[in-house]
């Protein structure tokens, strides 16, 4: 019983020490499937963050990323500077992760709460039945 409790405590504490690696990038143009992730230092171009396009090497396509989300700031919220690649272009700020395990688990919270509360209910009920005998 003590080993089961120890394993349960370790599993519950494990998510506290993990950190999601959500990255901010710049999607090239509206409808494009290319996201540039290499921020060009602290350089701002016309007040928006600037990202590097080094001959197409520092980018991801939408098929390579998970947890993709636009930041709601729209076209022109970032700038892509071409270094040896295509010309400069405005883009849209987005967030993404390259690992599916880094996605937020907010959608699973109700399921986890229901599962743990059900297990607790049956465990307490079993202990009460044993104590009343």
Q: In short, what is this structure?
A:
The chain is α+β, with helices and mostly antiparallel strands. The chain is built from 2 helices and 8 strands. It has a domain at 21-102.
Tally of individual helices: 2
H/E topology pattern: HEEEEEEEEH
The overall average pLDDT, rounded, is 76
Q: Major sheet, described briefly?
A: 8 strands, mixed
Ends apart, CA distance between termini: 20 Å
Look at the helices and sheets and give the structural class: alpha+beta
Radius of gyration: 23 Å
The proportion of residues in beta strands is 25-35%
Q: Spans with pLDDT under 50 lasting ≥5 residues? A: none
Please, could you describe this protein's structure?
The chain has 2 helices and 8 strands, in the order H-E-E-E-E-E-E-E-E-H. The mean pLDDT is 76. The two termini are 20 Å apart. It has helices at 2-17, 109-132; strands spanning 23-27, 34-36, 39-45, 48-53, 59-61, 66-70, 78-82, 89-97. With 133 residues, the chain is α+β, with helices and mostly antiparallel strands. The longest helix is centred in the last third of the chain and has 24 residues, at 109-132. It is rod-shaped and about 80 Å long. The protein has a domain at 21-102. Strands 1, 2, 3, 4, 5, 6, 7 and 8 form an 8-stranded mixed sheet that branches.
